[in-house]
Specification:
Mean pLDDT of chain A: 82
Strand order of the largest sheet of chain A: 1-2
Number of strands of chain B: 13
Strand order of the largest sheet of chain B: 1-3-2-6-8-7-12-13-11-9-10
Number of domains of chain B: 2
CATH class of one domain in chain A: Mainly Alpha
Radius of gyration of chain A: 23 Å
Low-confidence stretches of chain A: 1-11
CATH architecture of one domain in chain A: Orthogonal Bundle
Number of helices of chain A: 4
Oligomer: heterodimer
Number of strands of chain A: 2
């Protein structure tokens, strides 16, 4: 059973006109939860905007459901490489000054951050 | 039209110096940048110093084919001492302490500047850059295509002789097609990505844009090959591309995958021009046959699960702690993360990070990430089957010509579909070349030539034969 898009929200008309059924709709709480997991603060307007956009995207990609994938191995890499190891030796030579040049805040050559505890 | 091939002869014959050449390009940049916005940073001083060094090498006849050649690099290649932003506010002030491998490989050439791009290489139009959109040199009211927007526009507008870009789902081929230049996406792993800011690690590739295919062979020869610093570059021998290109093109067997011509949004004028180009290739005496890649239409949905999943992991490092942008209004450590990422990243980055985290999360993993990875296998098998039958495939690079600025910028999904012809080869990790093949309503159209793994020589050979007929 598909959820019909609400008339007053800005869903992608062509997406659903093409016959795609809405199989899920993200709630504001779900968007908030995901945003917090990925450490991005959102305003309430952004939550609403992303709620619709992410719902559209997730519904669009679910057209994969029509593909039979029983017993199909997933692909995670394409050049058939197997484990590649190298000797655990230092083969570069950065100075502390070079590495710290882009640091946002530092003290006595150390990165400075807010209290962790 | 200046090419590397022609200018190299002039440089070694001392008809022109690299310093003179570099000054010419810097002058063009100065004239055209106010309207094009192809560069984020122009490094005039460093470029002239590099040109002087190149002239010294040429004087003692210690040169390569690219010595002294002025080029642009997409602003995601780390350049020691030169700001590298990836088109994002969160890296606005980042100055890397090292060079990407490809930048080192081109140390004889002259880096004119760092070219504009969609933020973190996400987008298809060039409009998602924190530093503003790159305009299309053919029509300033239109997009240049993305994400390698600046590299494409710079070569098209003669602001650079060639450029380095990256292609994850079409980011070299689409802008090359929109701007009427040659663009090469290499086989996954053919060129080192060490020092290239990562977006989606199982798909990202480093490639180039040039004026013609002959130049592309020259650039690829310089940048291809194994790198100890990038374990995804297999030790597959690098062909002698210039030599391979001289071989008989009639020996190649070519397929036309029928599915590409009936994809959603395929413009009829683009289709007609690509079909005419295919006819001309047949006219070269090459055997062309229709083939089928039935899973083609699933490439975009697969792409927009796998890429966001990898993005959510790769972009986790931008936390406002070590380098880049840090929010000023943060009281506690958690606020540093939350606010820096809120203020430092654009909407497309945020969307992909969230979609990725969602599709990888427990309970959704099987329906999204695992499903997409399985369909990825089917797309790859499609290609493996047809490559038993043919050597190269011909298709449009993009379903349309360059669209208007703003036309798709507020609709994420319609922007995603701009990669509909380029995503399949990316998902399979195959090399693909975009070659200009005509104009539709005065805008460039690209012919895409897809090859088998590590067979860049085949697609360059066919592209070069097409270009010269």
């Amino acid at each position: 059973m598909g959820i019909k898009p609400r008339a007053n929200v800005n869903y992608n008309p062509w997406l659903y006109a093409s016959g795609l059924t809405i199989i899920m709709k993200l709630s504001a709480e779900e968007v908030k939860k995901i945003a917090n997991l990925v450490r991005i603060k959102l305003t309430s307007q952004e939550i609403e905007k992303f709620q619709h956009q992410l719902t559209d995207i997730l519904n669009y990609v679910r057209q994969l459901d029509e593909v039979k994938t029983d017993n199909i191995e997933p692909t995670s890499q394409v050049t058939d490489s197997t484990n590649i190891a190298r000797k655990d030796t230092v083969d570069y030579n950065f100075s502390r000054e070079e590495m710290m040049a882009s640091a946002l805040a530092s003290e006595e050559g150390h990165l400075k951050v807010k209290n962790v505890f | 039209m200046s090419t590397i091939y022609e200018l190299h002869k002039k440089l070694v014959n001392k008809e022109i110096s690299s310093v003179e050449l570099t000054k010419e390009y810097l002058k063009t940049i100065q004239q055209k940048e106010p309207e094009l916005n192809a560069f984020i940073t122009v490094c005039e001083k460093e470029a002239l110093a590099q040109a002087e060094e190149a002239d010294k090498l040429i004087a003692v006849e210690d040169y390569t084919a690219v010595t002294g050649m002025p080029y642009a690099a997409k602003d995601l290649f780390c350049t020691k001492g030169i700001k590298t932003t990836a088109g994002s506010k969160i890296l606005e002030s980042y100055v890397p302490p090292y060079n990407a491998t490809v930048i080192n490989k081109l140390s004889d050439a002259v880096l004119l500047g760092k070219a504009n791009m969609d933020e973190f290489a996400m987008g298809a139009s060039g409009e998602k850059s924190f530093f503003g959109p790159t305009k299309n040199p053919y029509d300033l009211t239109r997009v240049s295509g993305g994400t390698s927007s600046g590299p494409a526009a710079a070569v098209a507008a003669e602001e650079a002789l060639f450029s380095l870009g990256t292609d994850t789902g079409g980011s070299i081929r689409v802008p090359a097609s929109f701007c009427g230049v040659v663009g090469l996406k290499v086989t996954y792993g053919r060129v080192s990505r060490y020092g290239a800011i990562a977006m989606a690690s199982s798909l990202d590739t480093v490639g180039a844009m040039t004026k013609n295919v002959k130049d592309m062979a020259i650039v690829l020869q310089c940048i291809a090959g194994h790198d100890d610093f990038d374990s995804t570059t297999p030790k597959v021998a690098v062909d002698d591309y210039a030599k391979e290109m001289e071989k008989d093109v009639k020996k190649l067997r070519v397929g036309v995958p029928k599915e590409y011509f009936t994809l959603d949004g395929m413009d009829k004028d683009v289709k007609k021009i690509v079909e005419q180009a295919i006819k001309r290739i047949e006219g070269l005496g090459v055997r062309v046959e229709e083939v089928s890649l039935p899973y083609t239409k699933y490439a975009i949905p697969v792409y927009y699960i796998i890429v966001p999943s990898e993005v959510s992991s790769n972009l986790a490092r931008y936390d406002g702690i070590k380098y880049g942008y840090r929010a000023k209004d943060a009281d506690e450590l958690l606020d540093v993360y939350l606010n820096s990422r809120q203020q430092g990243m654009g909407d497309e980055a945020k969307r992909r990070i969230m979609i990725g985290a969602y599709s990888l999360s427990s309970g959704y993993y099987d329906a999204y990430y695992k499903k997409a990875s399985q369909v990825r296998t089917l797309i790859r098998q499609d290609f493996q089957k047809v490559f038993q039958q043919v050597d190269c495939l011909l298709a449009p690079t993009s379903p349309t010509t360059a669209f208007k600025l703003g036309e798709k910028n507020n609709d994420p999904l319609s922007m995603y579909l701009a990669d509909i012809c380029t995503a399949p080869a990316s998902i399979a990790g195959l090399p693909a070349l975009s070659v200009p093949c005509g104009l539709a309503n005065n805008l460039p159209v690209g012919l895409q030539i897809i090859g088998n793994y590590f067979k860049e020589s085949d697609i360059l050979k066919l592209g070069s034969a097409y270009e010269q007929q």
